[in-house]
Amino acid sequence: MNKERLFKDYRSYLSTAGLHEVFAVDYIAKLGEHHGLDVYRFRDKLVALVKRGESDIRCGANVIVSHLDSPRLDVLVGEPLVEREDGVFLKVIPYGGIIPQSWLDIPLVLVGRIYTDEEPIIIDTTDEFEFTITSLLPHLDGRKELEKFSMNNLVVRIGNSKKENILELLKERYGIHEDDFELADLSFIPATQVRELGFDKDLITGYGHDDKSCAYAELQAFLDSRNSDKTQIAIFASYEETGSAQTTGCQSEFINDIFLELTNGDFRVARQAIRNSRVISADVCAGYESNYARHFEESATAILGKGVGIVPYLGQKRGNDTEFEFRNDIKELAIVYDIPYQVETTKVTEGGGGTVSTFFATKGCHVIDVGVPVLAMHSPQEVISKKDLKATYDLYKVFLEN
Q1: N or C: which end of the chain has fewer CB atoms below 10 A?
Q2: CA 128/CA 137 separation, integer angstroms
Q3: What is the pLDDT of residues 284-320, one digit of tens each?
C-alpha cells in the first residue's frame, strides 16, 4: 500500500471509528469477521484478531498490541449538568495526561454511550453540535490565572439558555433525561478535522494520533500480511492512558485466555507459547522539536519524516528494557526490507512516559516498542508524518510475516 492511499484510509478511520474505543472495537471486530479471521472480543473495549499458523504454538506467536484510547475530557458521573447565570455546562474530568490550557477555546464534540429509559444509545455529535471551554480575555490581569488553570475548572459550555430548555432538546433529539447522565460513558474530544500540514503536505495534523496511528498501522498490516507458519495475533486494548489495569486494558487476564484458547485449554502449553512469543508494543514515541531541543536526548531522537521509531527502553529504564537479541532482530528486519527507522529514547533528566510493553515483558514475552514519532503528544492537535506512518505499517507487516 502506498503512502497516500494509507493516509486517506487512515484519515477516514480516524474521523469515524477512531473517535472512541467503543466505535473502534466494533469496527475492527466486524472487519476481522469479514476477512474470515478468528475474532476474540472482550466486553466493548478490547478485541484481538488471530491468524493461526501451522507450526506448533509452543514456538510462540508474532504479536502486535496497541491501545485505542486517547487523552480526552470525560463527563463526570452523578449530576454533571449545571446551570449558571451565563449558560448551561457539563462538568468533565481529564482522561489521561493533558495540559488543560491547550483544551480551552477549541471546538469539542460529544461521543460515547448513555442509557435511556428504552436502551443504551450511541452518541456522536460530530455532524450536529459543537461545544467549548472558554478562557479569559487577554486584557484582564486575571488572565495570568490560566497559567495555573485548575482541573476543577474544566466545565464544557453546552448551551446559552435555561437548563430546562437544554434538557428538552436532549429529550427530543436523543430521548435523554437528566438522571441518564448519572452513569453515562460520555467524552468530549476535539472537533478538529484530520488535515495535511505544510506546503509539501508530508505531515498529518489531527486529534488522537496517540495511539490511533499505531493501532491503524497494526490493523492494516495485519489484514495485508501473508499467512506464515507462525500464528499471528493483533491485540487492540484500551485504558493505556490511565494505566491499563481495567478489564479491557493490557493487564487483563483475557489476553492470557486467548493463548489458552489457542492451546485447547492446556495451561502449561499456553504459558510456553506466551514466553516464546515475539511482541511489538505499537505505541507512538516523542518526535523531536528543535524549539525544545534541550529536553531531548541528542544521541537518540526521532525526527518526523525520518522513519519508524524503535524504542529499546523507556525513560530512565523504569519500563520495559528490551533484550539485546530482539532489539537487533527488529533492526535487521528494517535493514533487510529497506524500511527507514530511527532509535529513540527519553533524556534521563526528563522522566518519560509508559507503554503497554511492560505488561508483556512480565509475562515473559520478547517485547519492544515500535511506533510513529508524534509532535504535541496529548494535545488536541497532534502531528505525525505520512512517511513515518508508512514505515511503521511496513515494519509491522514484515514482522508479522517473518
Answers
A1: N
A2: 28
A3: 999 999 999 888 888 889 999 999 999 998 877 777 8
Nearest Cα to Cα of residue 288 among 306, 264, 263:
306
Instruction: Pick the closest to residue 205 from 22, 71, 12, 386 (CA basis).
Output: 386
Q: Are strands 72-75 and 185-190 parallel, antiparallel or unpaired?
A: antiparallel
- For 340-356, write each residue's pLDDT tens digit: 999 998 888 777 778 89
State the DSSP H helix or E strand holding residue 383, giving kind and residue range, or none if neither: strand 382-385
- Residue 360 grid coordinates: 508483556
* Burial (CB count within 10 angstroms: exposed 0-12, middle 13-18, buried 19+), residue 266: middle
314 CB contacts (<8 Å, ≥6 apart)? 320, 321, 345, 346, 352, 353, 354, 355, 357, 358, 369
Helix (H) or strand (E) holding 337, with range, is none
SS3 content of the chain, % helix, strand, coil (to 5): 35, 25, 35
Q: Which of 381, 115, 362 is nearest to 253 (CA)?
A: 362
- Tens-digit pLDDT profile for residues 176-209: 999 999 999 999 999 988 999 999 999 999 999 9
* Sign for the pseudo-dihedral over CA of 234, 239, 243, 245: negative
Q: Which residues of 103-133 are buried (b: 16+ CB within 10 A; e: fewer)?
A: bbebebbbbbebeeeeeeeebebeeeeebbb
d(CA 92, CA 79): 11
C-alpha span between 45 and 47 (Å, rounded): 7
What is the Cα–Cα distance from 367 to 375, expressed in whole angstroms?
A: 24
Q: Output phi, psi for 171, to 5 deg.
A: -65, -45
Alpha helices in 158-265 (DSSP H): 163-174, 209-224, 254-262
Rounded Cα gap, residues 207 and 107, in angstroms: 12
CA dihedral 104, 107, 113, 119 (to 10 degrees): 130
DSSP 89-139: EEEEEEESS--GGGGSSS-EEEEEEEE-SS-EEEEE-TTT--BB-----TT
